Structures are given as structure tokens and as C-alpha cells.
Amino acid sequence: MDAPVIVIIGAGPAGTRAAQTVACAGLRPIVLDENQRQGGQIYRRQPENFTRPATKLYGASAASATALHNDFEALRPSIDYRPETQAWGVSDDLLLTECRGHADALRFDGLIIASGATDRIMPCPGWTLPGVFSLGGSQIALKAQACTIGQAPVFMGTGPLLYLVAWQYLQAGVKPRAVLDTSSLTTRLRGLGGLRRRPAVLVQGLRYMADLARAGVRLRSGIRPVRIEARQDGETPCAGAVVWQDGRGRTHRTDCDAVGMGYGLRSETQLADLLKCDFAFDALSRQWLPVTDRDGATSRAGVYLAGDGAGIRGADAAESAGALAALRCLQDMGRPVLESEMTRLRAALEPMNAFRHGLETGFPWPWRHAAALPDETVVCRCENVTAGDIRRAAGPLDSPEINRAKAFVRVGMGRCQGRMCGLAGAEILAAARGIAIEEAGRIRGAAPIKPLPAKIRGVVT
Amino acid sequence: MTGLFRRVAETGRPEIAITVDGHAVTALEGDTILTALLVAGDRLRFNEFDKMPRAGFCLMGACQDCRVWTEDGHELRACSTSVTPGLRIVTKEVPWTRP
Ligand SMILES: Cc1cc2nc3c(=O)[nH]c(=O)nc-3n(C[C@H](O)[C@H](O)[C@H](O)COP(=O)(O)OP(=O)(O)OC[C@H]3O[C@@H](n4cnc5c(N)ncnc54)[C@H](O)[C@@H]3O)c2cc1C
User: Fold this and answer.
1) Ligand 1-lining residues (CB < 6 angstroms)
2) Distance CA A272, CA A304 (A)
3) What tens digit of pLDDT does each residue of B32-78 get?
4) What's the CATH number for B15-93?
5) What is the mean pLDDT of residues A121-147?
6) What is the architecture, at CATH level 2, of domain A368-440?
7) What is the spatial distance between Cα A181 and Cα A162, in angstroms, rounded to a whole number?
């Protein structure tokens, strides 16, 4: 019998540890990642000709980053690594991939999806202006390209990444004009119980805030974004100021030349959707997520999820979850695995669940803001669909859920497939109809999950 | 015109000449197309619907709002494509379909 084929999607912390586990068991996994280099989001690598040391790029996580990169390089002879390769669809039992215009169809006996996450976005008037970037994007500019998004940025949103990115900008010599957090201090205290389960991470976050405050960066909590205003020096209108309301409802205007915005993360779940894995509504994050058991096994035999793609638990959890999902996959194939190792990994993940709870409680998605967005606010930036359009779909056009609204007014119909607008769009629809958010549903994944080059060559068997 | 992005390190890399909408732009080896264009300028493209300028958003290949074209009509995602010597980019939708 041929050796079973295990395909791993994503070479971030989760995918890397999954690959290592499979290789240790004597199998040669196929590992594909659309990025040029291994590392995933948090441990994203700079181009090869850049010279900044790991301590500069990854700060407090430098040791973990280096370990993950080195372990992966050591693995290279034992795995079939395919960089710049996107998994874009599923056909029965085949995974459809594309690399620089070449298509391939992979048969698999086990599939471990470690696809990570992107920023969770709450639109606001003006967010499509040049100069407004996602918070993660603001960090990628710095980490992977040694650039800042401007000279006087405002960072707005919520979550620990808000303070981390602002702090990293400060270290790079660019002082943020303000850090505007939609979560209030009282809300954050409510998350403390869970956050305390990882004291080192909590202390690190407090240090970032203290450093920012000491440098004179304006830190504000409990704010509500009003709009991003344009400045126009040249031909192009660009982000020039953020107008926001403080906790008492007073309006402020902060001048800036760039905005980084993000409200925590959302999981990349399209492949699980195409594979027809069961989803369930997660009340904590107000998102629909694929259902997995504690090891990452989905409702579909042979398909496993690990890391942020299965729910946001952070990088350390992603490493443990990647290894655990791989062990479970091997075990389900009838291969011998160390049960004690699985027990150890499950135990390591336990505090991460509490931490995730703390994060979502302390830095909640400000879903009520969606309902209050003015009608003319662009929500879907691909197709330029406004909050008013979604309300029209919800009301006069009587769309009971977001996919119907998509059919009527094209929200989430564009190239990003609702990655940016889907969560806010569902909140607007739910509020307009007076229904619970879970009833508004989720935008369904469709192949190709990201646009493909116009010309594709290769074998689609 | 001032660029949106500011380089804060890694400035000693070799230069690479590219062409954007017929104008010469100097990039550095290792730049993505997005970086090269936003260091030099303040937009990447125009939205098809409201025709307003856009300059990308997510930088991680998710939002697709940084798509530009090569002069021969191939669409590229600027945030995840590196510059190469002699690259010729147009930022307005090309009026012909691909060859
Ligand atoms: C921009 C950003 C910055 C972050 N920064 C921090 C930070 O500084 N500190 C922190 O603690 N946490 C950070 N996080 C959270 C952190 O990324 C995660 O906890 C951790 O990286 C999760 O690891 P992962 O392996 O699950 O996913 P990721 O690291 O996101 O890796 C997923 C990989 O899968 C690939 N992929 C996804 N879909 C496909 C597909 N269809 N085909 C091919 N490849 C695919 C991606 O290219 C990516 O390399 C950040 C998250 C984001 C989005």
C-alpha cells in the first residue's frame, strides 16, 4: 500500500508544527503556503536580502520566531514544501492548488488546514481612503518591508495588537498620534480573569501601554469612531484626520497622515466551508466557526483544523494545536502515536482557551457600532456597497440572511469574498431586521476562494 | 507628490528601476510592488464602482484591493508580488482583455 498522503495548508506556527509531527512519524507531508516564505503572520519573515535581526523584528517573541524558522529549515529535506502555492478549491477528494499560474489537483488521505486569520474589520466613513490600512497590514509594512504607513499614524480599533503595533512603530522612530481603543477600561477589567492565565503575555501588553504613555502617545479607551477625514495636498485625497467620540460622547478630531485599524482577528474558514465541514455559531466572538473537537478533528473524516483558522487563540496555541492535529490525523490513520504527548498538548491548550475568552471579553468586537453606521458608509470595499444598501436588502428586499442580501445588493460579492465586510455586514443586517446575529448567517465560501490568474496551465485531473 | 509609506530601515539595498503608468520609479530589491508604489506615490488603483483612488488595505493577500496590471494585461496583487528589474505596471484598468 502506498504511504498515506497528508497535505498541510499553511506554514505558520500551526502548519509548521503539524509538518514536523508528520515528518517525525516517517511520512513526507505536502506543505503549501501562498506566501513566498514560511513563517505565517506573527513570525512572517522579511525578504532574504534584508538584514534586521530577529530581536528587532519579533521583539519579545524573537526566540519563538527563530526556533520556528530554524526547525522548518531543518525539516525541508523531509517535506514537500510548496511556497507561493494557494489552495483555492476542493473537488470531491481533491484539493485544487495554483502556483504561479500552474494548477494542480492533490489527492489526500489527511488534510490539515492551518490557514490562520486576518484582521476583523469594522468599517467607518472614510476607511477606503488611501492611507488607511488594516492593523495587521500596518505591522506587515514594518516587519516585512521596513516601512511605516505614514509619519504620524493613528491606530484605532481594539485588541492587544493595537498596542503592539503602536509600540513597534514607536520603536521604529514613528510616534503614533493616538491609540484609540473602542473597548473601555471597565470592559477590559472583565477580561482580566482570562488574560491572567498567561501572566507573561499580560505583563508584556501592559508594558507596551506604559511605554506608549511615557512617550506621550495619546491612549484613549471606550471611543467610538465617527469618520476618517481626507486631506488633499496633491491629486489624491488621503487620510488626514480621525474624528472620534470619547466615552462621554464628546467629539474630538486627531490629525494624522495614516490610520491603522483592526478589531481583533477573524479566522480564515473558506476551505472548511468548501469541504462541507459543520459550522457552529460562536457566541463569544460572534462568528460562525468550523466545529472541531479538542484535537482539531472536523465533522469530515480526514480533515483537521489547527491554529487561528479554527478560532483565535494566538501563536503559542497554534504551535500546540498544529502538533496535536497532526497526531490525531496519524492516529486516525491507524499509525502509532504517543498518547501521553497528545495529553500533554491538550493540557497546554487549556489555559489558551481561557486566555481567548479573556481577549474576547476584554477587547470585544464593537458590534453595536455596525448598526449605527450612517447609510452612506461604504461597508463592502470591493463592490462599494453601503450600509444603506444592506439595510435596503434587509428591509424592502426582505433578505432574511446575509447570502440573500449578497445576491440582492452584492455585499460580499467582490474579490475578497466578504473577508473585510462580512462580519460587519451581517451585524448591519441583523440590526436592521431586529434578529439575532446568528440568524444573519455567514457569507458562504466559494471557489476560487481567492482570485486566480487569468491564464492557468496544468493538470486538473 | 509625497509617498504614503516611509522607509525606516533596510535602505542600503540595490535599486531596481520599474515603470509605473509610463513614469520611471526607483524601487529597492526586496520591495513588493505595493511598497515601491506607496513609497513613491499615494495610490495604487481606482475602485471600479466609485472611481476613487485606493492604496491597498490588508497587505496580506486577503482584501484584493491592491490589484494592478502589467502593461501586457496580467493582473498582479501588489502586496504579495516582488518588484523585478524592468517591471512595467499600469494602475488604471487596461482597456483590453488579456492576450
Ligand atoms: C497581520 C497579523 C499580525 C499578527 N501579529 C501578531 C503578533 O505580533 N503577536 C501575536 O501574538 N499574534 C499576532 N497575530 C496573531 C498570530 O498571527 C497568530 O496567533 C499566529 O500567527 C497563528 O498561527 P497560524 O499558524 O494559525 O496562522 P498564520 O500564522 O496566520 O499562518 C497561516 C498561513 O497559512 C497560509 N494560508 C492561508 N490560507 C491559505 C491557502 N488557501 N492556500 C495557501 N496558503 C494559505 C498563509 O499564507 C499563512 O502563511 C497576528 C495576526 C495577524 C493576522
Assistant:
1) A 9-15, 32-35, 40-42, 86-87, 114-118, 136, 139-140, 161, 164, 265, 268, 307-309, 314-315, 318; B 60
2) 9
3) 999 999 999 999 999 989 999 999 999 999 999 999 999 988 889 99
4) 3.10.20.740
5) 98
6) Orthogonal Bundle (1.10)
7) 8
